[in-house]
Write a structure and sequence with these properties.
heterodimer, A: 61% helix, B: alpha/beta, five-stranded mixed β-sheet, 39% helix
């Protein structure tokens, strides 16, 4: 039981989100600090590229974290801080790319493909439903089949 | 409508094919981060000189009214590729007469001074960016990075990584020639 508990605790600790924020960076004002974390989570680290600056240990990421806190402490809104960083590093620095003509393909291709496959699906279904059902043979045709089968059997017997 | 749909798979395959072809191009660098500075005025910054080095510091004002384009190189003594690049930059400055400014990025002044004394100092001005704040203003992601700034203080070109090797030097030289050509145009 003890061992199980230890394992559970360890697994919780080991899967806790990575945090790179160092004690000396944290702002005294908890409200500002919370906003800084919020902003840091949507800003991309320009060195590691697939990490936000909040979880990156890169030097530039730390500098950017400090910068974000400095701007917030100076009275900037979250958006103003983001614009400040964007002005220097471009849209690239945002974890989720903004909707601009150059990113239309990125944003809309999934919806376009989904719509296309839905359309294809419904067209196939409609075609299948409207296909003519098999009609039973008329008495006359039945007679013909029997006649045909009989003549064949006779042929085999000879 | 039906006729069009019959071609849809071909069309989709074609679009994806072109996309993958573009992605597989070995000359494309997926890590290249476009700089927002190109064709923009150089960022505002003001840096003290590196103590122990006999050249002045660097600020935004020094980039304006220069005679032709200048090379602004961001370097550090702890950066190994910078050491390799140093020879190339020295050649650009000493042999070819281009103006070379430096930004000493997040370096200990003593280390920087020792490094420059050992390797020689091709820089006309060096700003000491101890905090890395000027680096952020320039939008750099690491060292070395090298910019070409026009005589009016406009950023014309950015090279990420060391200007080392035939291809890199050729690319950089071409950008430099283009910068010189464009700076001479208004005078004509």
């Amino acid at each position: 039981m003890k061992r199980l508990l230890l394992c559970l605790t360890l697994s919780l600790v080991l899967t806790a989100p990575v945090e790179a924020v160092e004690p000396d960076e944290i702002l005294a004002n908890p409200e500002l600090e919370a906003r800084a974390r919020e902003v840091s989570k949507v800003l991309r680290c320009v060195v590691c590229q697939n990490q936000d600056i909040d979880s990156s240990n890169a030097g530039v990421a730390r500098d950017l974290r400090l910068l974000v806190r400095e701007r917030l402490a100076a009275g900037d809104s979250n958006d103003e801080v983001m614009d400040f960083v964007r002005a220097r590093y471009g849209d690239y620095v945002l974890m989720s790319p903004p909707l601009t003509p150059t990113t239309y393909a990125l944003w809309f291709t999934p919806f376009f493909l989904a719509a296309l496959s839905l359309l294809a699906f419904f067209m196939v279904m409609r075609r299948r439903r409207s296909a003519h059902p098999v009609e039973p043979l008329t008495a006359d045709e039945e007679q013909q089949v029997v006649h045909f089968l009989n003549s064949k059997n006779q042929g085999n017997a000879e | 409508m039906i006729r069009f749909l019959a071609f849809a798979p071909l069309l989709i395959a074609l679009v994806f094919g072109i996309f993958f072809l573009w992605g597989l191009n070995p000359n494309r660098d997926p890590n290249a981060i476009p700089s927002v500075l190109i064709s923009q005025p150089a960022p505002d910054f003001s840096l003290e000189p590196v103590p122990g080095i006999q050249v002045p510091g660097l600020s935004r004002a020094d980039l304006e009214g220069t005679n032709g384009p200048v090379i602004v190189n961001v370097f550090a003594s702890w950066c190994v590729p910078c050491r390799a690049e140093h020879k190339v930059l020295t050649a650009f400055a000493k042999n070819e007469g281009h103006t070379l400014f430096g930004i000493n990025y997040k370096d200990k002044p003593d280390d920087a001074a020792r490094w420059l004394n050992d390797l020689g100092n091709p820089y006309e001005r060096i700003g000491s960016d101890f905090t890395g704040r000027a680096g952020i203003e320039w939008g750099i992601s690491g060292v070395p990075e090298t910019f070409i700034v026009g005589g009016d203080g406009t950023v014309l070109y950015r090279y990420v990584g060391p200007v080392v090797g035939e291809q890199a030097v050729a690319t950089f030289r071409a950008a430099l020639s283009a910068a010189i050509a464009s700076s001479k145009e208004p005078a004509l």
